[in-house]
Amino acid sequence: MATRDDGTPWWTAFPEPKSDVNTIEPAQVLELLESQHNGKPKPCEFLLIDTRRTDCTGGTVTSSLNMPAHSFYPTRKSLYDLCKQAGIKRIIFYCGSSNGRGPRCAAWMQDYIDQVGGDIQSQVMTGGIRGWVKAYGGQMMDGYDEETWQAESA
Question: What pLDDT score was predicted for residue 36?
Answer without folding.
Answer: 81
